[in-house]
Write a structure and sequence with these properties.
Blueprint: E1 7-13, E2 18-23, E3 28-32, H1 33-38, H2 43-46, E4 64-70, E5 74-79, E6 87-89, H3 90-98, H4 100-114
Antiparallel strand pairs: 1-2, 2-3, 4-5, 5-6
Length: 121
Amino acid sequence: MQKSPRPTEINLHQQSRMLDIAFDDGCAFSMPVEYLRVHSPSAEVRGHGPGQEVLQTGKRNVNIDAIEPIGMYAVKLVFTDGHDTGIYSWEYLYDLGSRQDANWKTYLARLQQAGKSRDPS
């Protein structure tokens, strides 16, 4: 069984609103806080099944207030908009990092299709 990559370093840059994560397989990702927020693994964002996802809007200026470790497998990100129910496993963070470009394009297309904005109303 292949062991999933584990982070060796996690750095939050509050001014630029970027989260840098380096993994033990040599991969490293720099992800905008907004990206992490709109792709939260919480039921509030993902729904309870396929097709129940809730489009997140107005999150351009969101930041992270706290990063709380969850055991040895994940972190809970506490966002400045009060959202704190997503548990980001190492596997999920790695997946978000490696699929960032495609995920972001899909998100922007969904926003446009819904006539919504990244800016707070």
